[in-house]
Give the backbone structure.
Amino acid sequence: MQQRDYFAGDPRTNRERMLAGDLYIADDPDSERIARQAAVLVDRYQRAVVDAQDAQAREILTELLGSLGDGAFIKPPLAVDYGENLHVGARTFVNSGLTALDVATIRIGEDCQIGPNVQLLTPTHPVDPQPRRDKLEAALPITLGDNVWLGGGVIVCPGVSIGDNTVVGAGAVVVRDLPANVVAVGNPARVVREIVPGDPR
């Protein structure tokens, strides 16, 4: 059975479609090159951290990521698709095991706390079985505001934004936007209360 030409009349490359947030097929040579380079840098970063070469580790991470704020730290292991679409704000701490599938832009604000084994997942696939079988995919950006805390094992799905100061409980699956200054838990994540300044809970 011959595959349908989904891009008839569209002169863009698959990488250009990907960066525009449109459906594409992941066979672009530039994207493959960037992904391979990201894998090399991730490996070098982990080795530098293990060897306590802090300045070198920071330099590698700066080369890998789209941007890295002052005082931000990512504890390895780290997994990315490209790295260049991941932006981490100043003083943010990311615990071990972050998976950041940065096909679309992922922005993590300043002063965030990201627990272990968090997944930030921008890729999407068609629900229609035939385009999915034909390997079409797309991606939607993820944005975390300032001072967000994601507990261990949180999964943030494509297109989600989380507002400033919000706390997401361990193991939650965030499938829609969360406002600022709330606590959210569960699968799918739901708001259980607002955060009141000075509240010790």
Notes: The mean pLDDT is 96. The chain has one domain: 14-192. The domain at 14-192 is CATH 2.160.10.10 (UDP N-Acetylglucosamine Acyltransferase; domain 1).
